[in-house]
User: Fold this.
Amino acid sequence: MKQFLTLDDLTSFDAQVKLAQKIKADPYQFETIGKRKTLGLLFFNPSLRTRLSTQKAGRLLGMDVMVMNFSNEAWAIEYENETIMEGLRSEHVKEAAQVVSQYCDVVGIRAFATLTDKDKDESEQVLQRFIEHATVPILNMESATAHPLQALADALTLSELSLPAKPKVVLTWAPHPKALPHAVGNSFTRMMQHLDADFIIANPKGYDLDPRITKNIPVIHNQDEALKDADVVYAKNWSSYEQYGQILRTDNTWMLTPEKMKLTNNAAFMHCLPIRRNVVVSDGVLDHPTSKVIEQANNRTYAAAAVLKNLLS
Ligand code: CP
Assistant:
């Protein structure tokens, strides 16, 4: 594997989940694979889980790890070609990517959607421009349209649950005061297409995800109907895709509450974190034993280690 931008880059999804399970069972079994190799992690946006779990994953494989926060530590990068760089951007991606490639054997990049320019976001400008000029593999640590490391960790979490054959899994939109990207919803949806499950998406009208990603997955605009008899509930906010980046409603009727969870089959509750308590989900759901959010975060390490192992191979 030369790069990991989406789950489609995996040679085998099932093998990757199995490798993550194997690393979780014995985390240091591949500790020499990354000896004398360096992992560089470039963050253009904030992070807690991705930043720490990917560092930990690199170290489990014996790698040295360097982290740089581009919002306040590095020169602002120019991505356009043949531009006169007389503005605020001091360094061109052509040099930056080549220079970073000299120091690192794998480079992870986090670069969120702008949510103001759909075409630019869908072009994945930051990742694609780094890929164009880097000479080492690039790892997507959440881009404008995808968060595959999260989705792989979610697959690992699902594999650990006691679920019936063909469980009912619901990805439900939930409220949030800020406009959020579609990356987690997109990647979870792509990931579920690899599993044998009764998977549906619930969101208010106007919030349908990109139909090229949801394909023929049922999209229901009534949350209570969607939650009925669910075995897993995955909550996530995203802004409107059609009215790109817009917040269309601010009420709390889609917030996940214990009353709503009573509609389910004692469902496991999942969310990628960070989460706003009593906005996205009430305390009673998040603090209930059926909440899997902490284990999801734990599984980020093993999912990242499995991907890094393949990138190093
Ligand atoms: N879930 C996730 O990617 O968390 P961070 O934004 O904290 O990295």
Summary: The longest strand covers residues 38-43. Residues 7-147+300-312 form a domain with the Rossmann fold fold (CATH 3.40.50.1370). The CA atoms of residues 173 and 203 lie 5 Å apart.
